Amino acid sequence: MALTKAALQPTTTDDERQHSRDQAGLLLALADPSSLVRRWAARDLLAYPNASAALVERLLIETEPSVIEVILTTLTRIGDECAVVGLIRCLRTENAMLRNAAIEAMKLLPDEVAPLMGRLLNDADPDVRIFAVDVLESLRHPQVESWLIRVITEDAHLNVCGAAVDLLGEVGSECARPALLALKQRFIDEPYIQFAADLALTRIAAG
Amino acid sequence: MKRILVIDDAATVRLYHRGILESAGFTVIEAVNGLEALERVANMTFDLYLVDINMPKLDGYGFLRELRSKDIPQAPAIMVSTEAAANDQKLAYASGANLYLIKPVRPQRLLSHVLTLLGLTLPNPDHSL
Amino acid sequence: MATPLTINDEDFLKFREFFYRKTGILFEDSKRYFVDKRLLERMAVTASENFRSYFTMLRFQASGEELQTLINTMTVNETYFFREEYQFQCLVNSMLTEIIAHRTTTTPIRIWSVPSSSGEEPYGIAIYLLEYWSQLSDWDVEIISSDIDTSILNRARQGHYSPRAVQYLPATLLNKYFHRDGEYFQINKELRDAVEFTRVNVTDAAEMRLHRYFDVIFCRNLLIYFDDLSRKQTAESFYDALNPGGFICLGHSESMSRISALFRVRKFPEAIVYQKPWGVK
What we know:
The complex is a heterotrimer. By secondary structure, chain B is of the alpha/beta class. Helix content of chain B is 43%, strand content 19%. Chain B has helices at residues 11-23, 34-43, 60-69, 86-95, 107-118; strands spanning 3-7, 27-31, 48-52, 77-81, 99-102. Chain B has a five-stranded parallel beta sheet, with helices on both faces. In chain B, helix 2 (34-43) runs parallel beside helix 3 (60-69). By secondary structure, chain C is α/β, with parallel strands linked by helices. Chain C is 42% helix and 18% strand.
C-alpha cells in the first residue's frame, strides 16, 4: 500500500442516473427523496433560467439545508424577476435559516432588488423593514442615502432606525447630518440610538 | 479576566456592547455570525455569550444548540433580539439561552444581567474581574 | 488633485470594519502602517481623489476586481513547500486517523489539492505522507491536484523548484526527494508519478462533477480571491466532492464563516478544519 496514481471517477451512482438531465428530468429530480439528487438538480437547473419559478416553489418547502443553499445559489445566478420576487417571499417565512439566507442572496442582487426596495422599506412589518435596510448595504443606487435618511426621519420603529443609522455610518455624507441630529432628539432617552448616531456623525464628517 | 463573546452581524451593535462590557472590566471578543462564533469557541474559552438571533449563515438559535451539544465547559448565554414574539422566547430557552432580552439593551440593564449570571457584583475600583 | 498622503483614524476604522465583514481578517492597530500604505497605493493606482471615493468604488464595483486586488496586496501569497505545515501535521495525526476509523473497506484514500499552482502543495502532501504517516503501508492514497491554468499544471508536472521554494524543507528531505538540476531542484520521479494533475475550473459545475469521493480537500488561499457568490458556489461543489466525514482545509486567514454553513467546524490539536457531516449524502 502506498501513494498510487489516481484515475478520476466520473461514474455516477445509481440514484443519480434515474433522472435525465433535460429540464423535465431535472424538475422531477428536484423532488427526489435523495438530497444529493436534489442538490445536483438545483445546480444543473442553472442552465434553464425559466426554471426559477420551480426552484422558488421547491425552496419554500425544502427542509434540507444543503439543498436550500444550492437552490439559493442557482436563483442568485439566474437573478431574474421571478427569482427576486421568490427571495422576497422568503422574508416572511417562519424558517429563520431560509429567511436569513434569502437576505444574503438579495445582497448579491443589488440591481435586481433596487426597484422593489422602496416598497420593502415601507412594509407594514418592522422586521421586513429591518431586512430591507440590511439589503441596502450592498446596493449601489443613487437613492440609498436618501432612503436611509427617510427611514431615520420617518420610521417609528426604534430598531429599524437603528439598522439605518448603522449603515449611514458607512455610506452617509454630510447630507445626513440634520437627520441624524433630529433622530438623536427623537430618541433622546435611548442610549443605543445616541451611541449609533454619534458614531455615524463622526464617520460622515471624516469622509 | 472574564471573557465575553459578543455575536452580532451589525458592527455598531458589537461596538456598543463592547463599550459597555469593557468599561466594566470584561474582555470582549467579537464574531459576526454563529459560524464565526463556533470558531472562536474552538480556539478559546468564554465566561459568557451575548448572542444576536438574526444573523447570516448560522443564527443565534443554531449557534446555541451547537454550543450546548459540545462536550466543553458551558457558560451562560444571553440572547438578544429585535423580536418580541413569545415564540421566540420559548425557542431561545429551548436552544439553551439563560436569558432573553429585547434590543437595544440599556447599558446598566445589560451589565446587571451579566453580573448576575456570572455571580458577580460590581467591582471595587481596586479589583479587576 | 493630489491623492492625500494619509488615512485618518475614522477612515481606517470604517475600512477595517468593511474588510473584516468581507474577509474575516481583522487588522490590529499595530497593522495601521501596513494597511494605510497599501490603501494609499491602491488609491493612487485607481486615481481616487480621496478615501471616500476609493471606498465607494471598492464597495460597489460590479466585478469586485479592486476588492480582490486589495485582498491580494493585504495577504501574503508566497507558495513554498510545507506552507502552513500545521495542516499537514493535522492530516497525518488527526484527520486520517478519523477517516480510517470509519472505513469499512480498503478503497483508496483520496486527497485533493486545489489550486495546484506549481505543485508545492500536492508534492508536499506526498512527502509528508511518506515521511510521517505511519499507516501508509496499510492504505493506498491517491493525490489529485488541479488548477485552471494548464501551463502551470505542466510546470507542476515537471516539478522544478527554486531554492526559495524549498527553503523550509529539512535538508534530509530535500536530499531524499529532490535532485539538483543546475540552480534548481527537481522533485524525484517517484513523487512526480504519485500525483495526478488535472485541469479544473472550480466554478464550473460540470467539471467539478468529475471530481468526487474525496476524503480530504486542501483549498488554501484560493477562495479568498473569489467574489461572494462564486465562493459560496465553489464551497457547495466541494461539499459534493467530499465523502461523508470528509475534511476541507482553508488558508490560515480564511474561514467558512463567510462562505457556507454546510460544513462543521472541527478543532484538532494541530488545526481547525471543516468537515462534511458523517451520515449524510
